[in-house]
Structures are given as C-alpha cells and as structure tokens.
Amino acid sequence: MARQGGRVVRISVKIDGARYEDDVEPRLLLVHYLREQAGRTGTPIGCDTSNCGACTVLLNGRSVKSCSVLAVQADGAEITTIQGLSNGSRELHPLQRAFHEAHALQCGYCTPGMIMAAVDLLSDNPHPTEEEVRDGLEGNLCRCTGYQNIVRAVLAAASGSSTAEASA
Asked: Where do the 2Fe-2S ferredoxin-type domain residues begin and end (predicted)?
C-alpha cells in the first residue's frame, strides 16, 4: 500500500477502550498518531525528543513517552491517554482530583504526562515515599510548579486522602 508516494502499514490499537484500525507511515510517532488520527489531543506534543515527558501515555499498562514510540510499534497494544483515565465517567480519576486539589499544575502543559507517569508509579508501588515519588517522576519535566505540589498530589492519591490531610 502506498500513500503520497510512501509505504504505509495497517495497525490496530485499542485507545481509551475504543478500537482503531488505521494505515500509518512506518516513521509516524505514536504521539502524532494519537493526536492527528485518533483525535486524542489531551496528549500534548512537548519536545519530540523524549526529554520532557509531557506526552506520556500508558502502553499495555506501562508509561511510555509517546514521542519515543512509533505508531507501528504499538500495533496490537492497548493505550490509555489522559482522556481515557476515568474510563468515560464524568468523575475525575483520583490522581486528576489530587492534582486539582493540591494545585499541582500551573500552565498544565506537563500535567497529562505527570499524571500518566504517576498512574504507572502507583500501580507498581501503591504506597511510595516522597523520595520514591520524586524518583518515579524524574523523567517528566515541569517548568512552573517546583514539583512540591505534584509530589503532594501523588502522595495524597496514594493514601486516598485529600491533599489537606496528606500535608498535615
């Protein structure tokens, strides 16, 4: 198959619970596929070099920087984006709620990636220490917050308490 003079590959993925089958160029990054073909624009394009982590999604339950994965590498995979985190319910995921309550966002650009990385962190370690949260999020950059409120939010979500209770 060819499109615009190039080769394409058919992929099938499940994104936020919905099945997608598309033809993609072999060099297409997953972040561009998610945004441009699947309409999952909650995943921002940050640096395109895997330095910032803003584009982090869950690929088969594990956090990955979607600018470092080709769409063809995700063939057959299940992907969860920030938009699918609450499983279609109108209620926020506990991490989304904790980020809101702890003021763990300012410009919001890094927030989807931070939350998705934190979901993976908490799936491996449901009760992390502050140091473990900092280590678990070190591949995700934030230029606005200074990280303290982000760490507080992740700890609050892990404990199941509000951020006011977590900081007491």
From this structure: 9-85
